[in-house]
Design a protein that fits this description.
233 residues, alpha/beta, Rossmann fold, five-stranded parallel β-sheet, 11 strands
Length: 233
């Protein structure tokens, strides 16, 4: 069986053209045309590549992408969209897209990008995330520290995954909220702080602090408290 590709596209004519072209190249293509069906398909199966439109009925492509990444999903995702502004491309890539191609496009370029992402995915199939003695198994959605299983809520697990993907990087509350809760941060809510406090309490029951608070800046996954860290938070 060829590499498995999920095409999420609501234009029937374009979807048919892409499906036929990729199939002719030996790829096994499944097609869905709305956001809810896309979410179900991505969660139900393992894909070598997801080609994702942005504007979709039911749920847009950016929300689908962010939800997949928050849950620890690692499928290679190529945005294929008419949204061609630089800000849109930056937003899509920052949300976790592996590549971004604007419509209209040349099929030869789509095929080349698809092949590159599939090769890259096969070469680097990450199933676990680790930092020091903390580990998350993305396949089973289980976390442990020093071999001790951690009892985390879904949001705490999503937070931990996000931190593990960005070690030694200052993460603002707005960025954390956008990725884990999928919404704009209102700069008043203490939701991020409350959830990080409970996550940190669970982690620190089995080892030293690794999530540092940087006053006025956000949080940092590091076992070394840098200057500007609020050790009491």
């Amino acid at each position: 069986m060829g590499n498995q590709v999920l095409l999420v596209e609501d234009d029937p004519s374009l979807a048919r053209s892409i499906t036929e072209g990729l199939s002719d190249e030996g790829l096994a293509v499944a097609h869905v045309s709305d956001g809810m069906a896309a979410t179900d398909a991505i969660n139900r199966s393992r894909w070598d590549l997801v080609i994702l439109d942005w504007w979709l009925p039911g749920k847009d492509g950016l929300a689908i992408l962010e939800e997949h990444r928050r849950g620890g999903g690692t499928a290679p995702i190529l945005f294929l969209t008419a949204r061609d502004a630089v800000s849109d491309r930056v937003r899509g890539l920052d949300a976790g897209a592996d590549d971004y191609l604007c419509k209209p496009f040349a099929f030869e370029e789509l095929l080349a990008r698809a092949r590159a992402l599939i090769r890259r995915g096969h070469a680097v199939e990450v199933t676990t995330l680790t930092y020091r003695d903390v580990r998350v198994d993305l396949a089973t959605q289980r976390a442990d520290r020093a071999g001790v299983p951690l009892n985390l809520t879904s949001k705490e697990l999503s937070l931990l995954i996000f931190f593990l993907r960005h070690p030694d990087e200052v993460l603002s509350r707005a960025r954390i909220y956008g990725h884990v809760w999928g919404d704009d941060y209102d700069f008043v809510s203490n939701t991020v702080d409350v959830h990080i406090k409970t996550l940190r309490r669970t982690l620190e029951a089995h080892g030293p602090r690794i999530i540092q608070t940087l006053r006025g800046r956000g949080y940092l996954l590091s076992d070394v408290a840098p200057v500007g860290t609020d050790g009491a938070s």
